Amino acid sequence: MGAAPSALTDSSSASLGQFGCHGNSSEKSQPLSTGSANSFAPSGHSRQSSSSSSATARLQQTLKRRVAWLRRRSSPDPARQFRAFIADWSSADLRVLLDEFEALHALKDAHLGAAAARPQCSSLCQDLGCLLRTGLGSDARLILGGVAFPVHRAVLAARSNFFARLFANGEDYDSAATGGADYPLDLCVPGGLDPELLRALLAYLYCGEVSLARLSAPATVAALCHELGAPGRLSDDLAQLLDTGHLADCVLIFEEAEPRARRIELPCHRALLACRSPFFAGVVEKRLAAARRHRRRRLVRCAVHGGGDGVGDAQLAEPPLALVLDEAVLPRRLAPAMLTCLYTDRLPDCLALRDLMDLHEIGRFLELPCLTRASEDLLVESLCPDTLVPVLDWSGAGTGSAWVHRQARLFLCEEFAALAVQAPRVLTQLSRRELLAALRSDFLQAAESDVLSALIAWGEAQVAARAAEIVA
């Protein structure tokens, strides 16, 4: 239930105050001198005076006696101990205590809410909706009633068997550079298919959202399912699109970084890359503009030669957009995971901790918010005694995640007592900064004896580590 009131934490504050933690001491206990506290920290000198060593030994013995006294005093049943403590309190005092606990509980809820806040990230549905509205990289046009609707063949083919058959015999030339071929559309729908209904239908296929009441009418739904087929879940359909590489118009290339490394090519779809990353959107737009200029020059040359040399659309075909990636930025082993997240908003569960950290940095570099958020979510889900220290160290660095760092610190405060008893080795591996942050937290869930035990173990580990460095 968060931090206890000041009336209940006097003895705790008396001991923690000697280590720079918050709280005022009202209980008389053996004071710790400044010299002793300094000698408790590891020294960088190879020679230590006998007085400093004896001060350190006295400090350790004092802390150990304090822990033993606290454990003898503490009851095995905290609830019974608390009832005995407030047995002679008046109803007014109990009401004040209850009000303080409620205020602390509300403060903790506000603290947790602030720690959980992070920048907004657009979802797969939102990005595909933006792609439909802007028409970036569209490679086909649906014609209905004299109105042209720029679309992306790969997305519609993945969502509907009707469009998969319609685009099966599409043009071979680079349709994205020309705006795409025209496909007149004729569907049997009650009341007729008009541009407004087609626009709502495309929004549903791209985003999975129904934006028109008529589209949800039972007769219309039945007719569309009969004509188009019932689409599956958006992320599942796009995952299958990635696996099959159907209508792929882009390829990620990893050159041979080492003599024995083989060249790897991963087919994908530039429309998906562009809508999910501003970085890839800039690259795709620049390449498409270059392809349009190149196509115009070839058409001019054909016209100059009289068009009789047999140069047609098939010979004006452009190869898929090739993106050669530097393995220093995106290692080839992580490229499939990145593409999976880009198409589905999720990462495989089998990734190692180091891979998740690398993917977070890749997401920041390539401006892929979906990859950054998915890696953060898995890092927080993986928090346990074995991963706590490496996650704290990575997230607290400049290239880490501030949101993951806050969640890891909350995990440490919530599980401090359990770690002190079941995994004390984890607490000894904490940096001084993280240990102080936990001890200064208003919501540290640990008894005074557990805190002092952890401090003793941490100090002994620091002294042993410094001694090993001196010997080495």
TrEMBL record:
Residues 138-214 form the BTB domain. Residues 23-41 have a biased composition (Polar residues). CDD domains: BTB_POZ_ZBTB_KLHL-like. InterPro entries: BTB/POZ_dom (IPR000210), Btbd7 (IPR042345), SKP1/BTB/POZ_sf (IPR011333). Residues 43-54 have a biased composition (Low complexity). Gene3D superfamilies: Potassium Channel Kv1.1, Chain A. GO terms for biological process: morphogenesis of a branching epithelium. It comes from the Eukaryota. Residues 1-57 are annotated as: Disordered. PANTHER family: BTB POZ DOMAIN CONTAINING 7, BTB_POZ DOMAIN-CONTAINING PROTEIN 7. This is BTB domain-containing protein.
